[in-house]
Specification:
By secondary structure, this protein is mostly helical. The chain is 90% helix and 0% strand. The chain has one domain. GO terms for molecular function: monooxygenase activity. Keywords: Coiled coil, Membrane, Monooxygenase, Oxidoreductase.
Length: 154
């Protein structure tokens, strides 16, 4: 087993662990966002009830409640944007994992001696190469989407 093969295998395991850790962090953050959504929803319901039920309240109090409600809506919108970004990151991680698997398969065909390759091997190699290009294009689309969203926010 040549050194370069061990190095490639080690790097593949390391990148897989990084993706796994990143996926776990994203999942935790999505769960935190879900909890925060529920809390904001409850606070919003209370403020709406106060605004509807307390018609005799001073105008200052109603203005304060309205401002709090608007702040909650803004916070919820920010969380929705973050959640959307995280979902794109999840898709990107899946595509990255797919790309690594396809890279590994393609490398096994490329490393095979040309004289030992069967027509089926060559066909499989071309198919894997095509799939790899598709995955790279999908990742590119996701990156462009994120960039467009960032620019539109600015």
């Amino acid at each position: 087993y040549p050194t370069w093969k061990r190095t490639l295998a080690r790097r593949a395991r390391e990148s897989q662990m990084k993706r796994f850790c990143r996926a776990q962090a994203i999942q935790r953050r999505l769960e935190e966002i879900e909890v925060t959504f529920r809390e904001l929803e409850q606070q919003g319901i209370k403020l709406e009830k106060l605004l509807r039920d307390e018609n005799e309240s001073p105008a200052d109090q109603q203005t304060q409640w309205t401002n709090q409600l608007l702040y909650l809506v803004q916070k919820k919108n920010n969380l929705m944007t973050e959640e959307s970004d995280l979902m794109i990151a999840v898709q990107e991680l899946k595509l990255e994992e797919q790309q690594c698997q396809l890279d590994e398969k393609l490398r096994s065909y490329i490393n095979k001696e040309d004289t030992l390759k069967t027509p089926e091997d060559e066909k499989a190699e071309q198919e894997i190469l095509k799939q790899l290009v598709d995955v790279v294009n999908k990742r590119n689309v996701l990156i462009q989407l994120q960039e467009e969203r960032r620019l539109s926010e600015l």
